[in-house]
Amino acid sequence: MSLKPWSEIARPHKDVLEGTFKQSEFAADITQVATGTAPEEYQNAEKFFSRTYITEGMRLLLISVAQRLTGQGGDPVVQLQTAFGGGKTHTMLAVYHLASRKVSTDKLTGIPPVLDQAGITELPTARMAVIDGIQLSPSQVRTYGSTTVNTIWGELAWQLLGEEGYALVADSDRDGTSPGKDSLKQLLTRAAPCVILVDELVAYIRQLELGKQYKGGTFDSNISFIQALTEALKAVPNAILLASLPESELEVGGTMGQRTLNSLEKYFARVESVWKPVGSSEAFEIVRRRLFESSGERAQIEGISRQFSDFYRQHADKFPVETQSNEYYERLCSSYPIHPEVFDRLYEDWSTLDKFQRTRGVLQYMAIVIHRLWNDGNRDALIMPGSLPLDDANVRNKSIHYLPQGWEPVLEKEVDGPRSVPADIDGHHTLFGGVQAARRTARTIFLGSAPSTQAEMIRGVQTERILLGSVQPGQTIGVFEDVLKRLRDRLHYLYAEQDRFWLDTKPNLRREMESRKQNISERDDVIPLLKEQVARVFGRSHHFGGIHVFTPSVDVPDDYGTGPRLVVLPMEAGYSRTETNQAYGQAEKILRNRGEQPRQKQNRLIFLAPDFDVVGRLREQTRIYLAWRSIVTDIENGTLNQDLSHLNQSKRSRDAAEQSLGQLIRETWKWLMAPVEDFVKGRPELNWEVVSIPPTAPNLIQSIEDKLREEEWLVYEWSPIHLRKVLADWYLKDGVNEVSALRVWQDSCHYLYLPRLINDQVFRNAIALGVEAQDYFGFASGKEGDRYLGFAFGTNSLAALDESSLLIDRETAAAYAEKIKAAEQLAPPHGGGLPGTGGSGQHSGGADVTLTPPSDPEAKPGSGGDEPTVTSAAKSHFYGTVELDAVKAKMDFATIMDEVVQQFTAQLGVEVTISVEIEARKKDGFDESLQRTIKENCNVLKFSSSEFEED
Question: Higher confidence at residue 558 or residue 898?
């Protein structure tokens, strides 16, 4: 079911629709109604009640008034004390129209049920008296014909009974003294049934200075009058007084105002009944009736409200808890076409502002908003906080009218308007602009946070309420969450703490950050930081021989190593699926050359390339992090003069920027590249195999190794059948029966068309398994003439890789094994078989075997005549000495370790001792500094002896 726009379902009143309403008309004036000069909607009782929603408080009050006027009980005095704009004047008007009875009650919308509940069938017409403290002045008299009225009690008597009434209090009015209780009782009895409406009484009495006589009496005489009036009302069963008293300091005024209020409250408290003000839930209907001619058909309203309610329940973790209840669905229906969140923010947040009137302020504000939205053709399903057209001058001016100075530039640049940042974000990103995500989000933050002050402990509007005020059913919540982060990173007047956001007229430190960001050097600042951060991502637990981050080709070793080397390409070598791929060119330079020299071990390199499309964002985020880090440092050092709140904000921004940088690093370096060569027309041709590493993987280096294993770009376990195929394809063919095992291993490190083994141990294991199986190849540790030394075929063998070790074609190895077996069968029975063979037809490595033909003339006496002689030599000690070139000693010693020492350490049971002897001479002697340095280094390296001597 599609969401139909509110403008196609509801219809505003004509004055709202056409923009012809006068804001002053929203301010009901009881005196204008009493004198017949009020606007028609307030003057005419039928029109007034047709646009009036009878709230719970108003209903109870009208029942009490009706009962009082008919002498059936009710309260004699009702105090209307609420916050500014709480609806008390509107309630007085309802009482006025009900009691004055200009039309029958059956024509007053909502009144018949009230009278039924009060048990009244016929309501008498009451005399009315309206005392308006703003309209009257203590220093000015009022003339009615030949009668001059000075005081509020004189005014009361005249309005109730004219000259007859005034005569009862004439002396007191002329003297400025309060009439007695009996005089007032007599007045009320003659006027009954009567209603007295007193508005802005505090505003009148607070003008009377203590000890000073006015035409309107003194401060004490006026307070005494209120005391006597309230007492007299108790004695007259069909007379009632409604008095409004202010609650806000703005209305109370200064010291005299507060003194007046305290005195009045004391006397009213004796007999009063406190009226219940308008609740925020009742405000829905008040505003809707006043602003909308029709809110639409009930079925359509319920359908729209149900879609919103279901949407909130489907994404329960994204919205406030109260949206999950059926009660919120009812609120959606009752407030349609205005979203409940608009009312909640205006009544809960904006009503705390001194100048904002609860009911009247909401009516004035929403009338302007609805008029602009209607004329702009707004297509929202509901009028939400995100719908407010704050780019409109009238709406903007009304919004900032209630706020402190300084909000206008904030609204223009950071919330709404053609040149605002949110408009720029929506304009340059289709994903956001399609739903106006940035502007809707900024408007919601403004409505929810603008009334807050720095004195509040917890400021701002929560993320869940921002989403509630901006997202409509069918839209992607993640889009608005993403744009919220964009706004946080770009706005200069937006603050964020945990999940709360608020706008302020004081700029945050983002402008300082933006300034510093421009001065950050990529070569000196960005690249060193990224190199450090990227290297930290990999850790140290891996199988690579080295990880080289942004390393020039000359510094990437060209060796066999303990594992392949992972080369992390710099930002300028971004990978892209387009033809202009910078990663291939940069990687090929490192692959083919080490500096100016050709690279030999090309098959030992794997590459990790950055994503070309993300590199730009990474550069920007790195600069942002560095800028925030420098700001925090400068504030802590006192270089930048800022308060504690800005320090905390900058720390949060720094930490958030660092976290975002870490995520972007993972998103950037995600392309794993392996070089391979395929033969095309007999010549190898370089190709690149590329795969993506998931940025969300918890362990990057583990993910890389898993992907290399999965794609078989790196071999961790090699089956001997694959080794046999390599031997058959490249080595053991065209009459060649044997090949150097070391050469095969080294070739696998050199050539990109051969398998890439993780290390030589994988190669050794494949040899051992192949030799044991007797199905693939044989192995020999060397060869002298036609004789294989350390021959192994069909038995366990620890393969040693050196220049002498050989891999032998299977058929050749099998034939050689048969030859040995035949020789063993010719051996004397007491010999127990050939030495080192275990008496079997298979020969294991470890013994040098010489087969001497029977006709050998060199046969020694006692050798067994015509039988073959087997000579075995087992040497148990090795000693070697070599002199090294001092310039090349480091490289030569590494070679000795690989080619000699490792051969011993790979064998079980071999004890190896290495001694290093260093001798240096200089004709003119070594200076003291060098001697001290050498001795200190030797001590650290634990030399057993190290001395300088004279020749």
Answer: 558
Residue 300 φ/ψ, nearest 5 degrees: -70, -40
In the chain the first and final C-alpha atoms are separated, in Å, by: 103
Write the single-letter amino acid at 150: N
The 10s digit of each residue's pLDDT in 818-872 is: 988 888 777 665 444 443 343 333 444 433 433 333 334 333 333 333 433 334 4
Check residue 251 and give left, alpha or beta (phi > 0: left; psi -120 to 50: alpha): alpha
Instruction: Find out whether the peptide bond into 610 is cis, omega within 30 degrees of 0.
Output: no
Q: What is the DSSP letter of 381?
A: S
| Mean pLDDT in residue range 224-242 | 91
Query: Strands 683-692 and 597-598: what pairing?
Result: unpaired
Contact present, 345 and 447 (Cβ < 8 Å): yes
Q: What is the pLDDT of residue 314?
A: 95
Task: Please state, in angstroms and rounded to a whole number, the distance separating the CA atoms of residues 86 and 150.
Answer: 31
Task: Encode pLDDT of 387-443 as tens digits.
Answer: 999 999 889 988 888 888 889 999 999 999 889 999 999 999 999 999 999 999 999
Q: 933: Cβ–Cβ under 8 A, 6 or more apart, which residues? A: none
Cis peptide before 694 (omega within 30 of 0): no
Q: Where are any strands of DSSP class E within 706-776? A: 738-740
Radius of gyration of the chain (CA): 49
Distance CA(743)–CA(714), nearest Å, equals: 19
Place 617 in a pLDDT band, splitting at 50, 70 and 90.
very high
CA distance 718 to 716: 7
The continuous run of DSSP H or E covering 296 comes out as none
**Cα torsion 347, 352, 357, 363: sign:** negative
Contacts of 580 (CB under 8 A, 6+ apart): none
Burial tier of 911 (Cβ tally within 10 Å: 0-12, 13-18, 19+): exposed
Closest C-alpha among 378, 395, 393 to residue 339: 378
C-beta of residue 202 within 8 angstroms of C-beta of residue 261: yes
Judge whether residue 710 has pLDDT over 90: yes
Which string of DSSP letters, residue by residue, matches 349-379? TGGGSTT--HHHHHHHHHHHHHHHHHHHT--
Residue of 505, 483, 345 whose CA lies nearest to 413: 505
Pairing of strands 292-294, 11-12: antiparallel
The Cα–Cα gap between 37 and 132 comes to 15
The DSSP call for residue 897 is I
In this predicted structure, what is the pLDDT of residue 248? 60
Cβ-proximal residues to 129 (8 Å cutoff; 6+ apart), any chain? 155, 156, 159, 160, 194, 195, 196, 197
827, two tokens = 């051996």
Query: Helix, strand, or coil here: 548?
Result: strand
Name the pTM for this structure. 0.56
Going by the DSSP 8-state scheme, the letter that residue 146 receives in this structure is T
Q: How many CB atoms lie within 10 A of CB 380?
A: 18
Token look-up 């639409």 returns: 296
Burial of 698 (0-12, 13-18, 19+ CB in 10 A): exposed
- Whether the Cβ atoms of residue 847 and residue 855 lie closer than 8 Å to each other: no
Is residue 715 within 8 A of residue 745, CB to CB? The reply is no
Cα–Cα distance list, 753 to 602, 603, 674, 726 (Å):
11, 9, 12, 10
pLDDT digit string, tens, across residues 248-283: 666 677 788 888 888 887 777 644 455 555 565 666
**Residue for token pair 């701002």:** 460
Closest by Cα among 811, 885, 816 to 849:
816
- Whether residue 212 contacts residue 256, with contact meaning beta carbons closer than 8 Å, is answered with no
Strands (E) located in 479-563: 494-497, 500-503, 546-549
Smallest CA-to-CA distance from 480 within 463, 494, 500, 502 is with 463
* 772/168 Cα distance (integer angstroms): 132
CA–CA separation, 277 and 83 (whole Å)? 9
Q: What are phi and psi of 842, to 5 degrees?
A: -110, 150
